[in-house]
Amino acid sequence: MIDKNESRNMAVMNDLLQKAGLTGAGEHSLKITPLMGDGSSRKFWRILLNGQGLCLAVAPPSISADGLKEARAARAIGLHLIQQGVRVPEQYGWDEESGILLFEDLGDCKLHDYVLQTQKKERDPVARIRASYKKVVESLVVMQVLGAEGFDPGWCWDTPRYDRSLMLERESGYFLRAFWQDFLGRQAPSGLKAEFVALAEQVALIAADYFLHRDFQSRNIMLHKDEPCFIDFQGGRLGPLGYDLASLLIDPYVSLSINLQDELLELYLDKLEELAAVDRGKFREEYLLLALQRNLQIVGAFAFLAKQKKKVFFRQFLLPALSSLNILLERDLFSEFRVLKKTALAALKELG
User: What is the pLDDT of residue 157?
Assistant: First the structure.
């Protein structure tokens, strides 16, 4: 039985389709099929017309203040990025009251899927994977630099800027609570919080005046007609350059080799120099600090999704995320983070 909310959603989608002129005139067969999101609680549908993909629809999990704020952020930030020439899905319809948004159907090929398929089919997949990632990092630079121009922090539904409190609460703190204490059932190590504060204070010194996607990983990048298109940007805000790059390169869904990560970082800097002045040495150090913050967030998020949300898909990626964390902590830059290094190694041994 379809509940009232579902009936309302269907009616809104049909109305938006009609207003956008997507169904045309005459007799047509329209099919609206629910889709599964990854870690999101939002609702998704694929809309087919006569068996052909017409568009997608997304709605907040409920018509609450936070749900509508997130939906409005997706609407406003998406329109801004389109205006700035960033390849994100085109928008076809919007309903302010329900938060339902109709947008371009880009198919089903995520960058993650493409990497896995290429690794299975190709004897030497690295060249093709490198070529795809080169396009992604070049497009990322454009989104970060041009996306910041004219960006209104009032569009943000979460926080307007990446800052110290966010790092401590939802990145390093997330790692401690969701992974170390809840997932593993361990007590907080003495001195760990102090190291997290020291890390956040260093990261807070990095300029945070660029567009930040904040979940820029291979399952949020679609390959459509061999070109990358970015989705799930509704959490966008102002932030530092290196964060989204780190999200992409240390992404545990694909576990890129260290050599390829280093190569892509240099390609990114080459593109960045076309649009902004950059101190490459300083950027590399900032990148490592941001990569550590991001890695802590990833582990916390996967632990939370696997245990609290019962989304077992994410558990398989905890081990590669912990491996990445331990590799990062071997850098000389993090020699003083003794408690975190000990904690990360213990976690890797326990899960490995």
Answer: 94
* Residue that terminates a domain, selected from 103, 134, 162: 103
Gap between the Cα atoms of 327 and 331, Å rounded:
7
Round to whole Å and give the CA distance between 351 and 318.
8
Domain coverage including residue 300: 111-351
Whether residue 147 sits in one domain with residue 61: no
Exposure on the CB side of residue 187, measured as CA atoms within 13 A: 3
Task: Please tell me whether residues 32 and 138 are part of one structural domain.
Answer: no
From the list 293, 282, 205, 279, the residue with the least C-alpha distance to 250 is: 293
Q: Using CA of residue 161, residue 167, residue 173, residue 176, what is the dihedral sign?
A: positive
Average pLDDT over residues 227-248: 98
pLDDT in tens, 62-88: 888 888 999 999 999 999 999 999 999
* pLDDT score of 25: 56
State the CATH number of the domain containing residue 95.
3.30.200
Full strand arrangement of the beta sheet holding 52-59 = 30-35, 43-49, 52-59, 100-103, 91-95
Count structural domains, the chain: 2
Could you give the C-alpha distances from 207 to 148, 187, 262, in angstroms and in order? 13, 34, 22
Looking at the fold, whether 157 and 257 belong to one and the same domain comes out as yes
Residue with the larger pLDDT of the pair 233 and 6: 233
70 shares a domain with 196: no
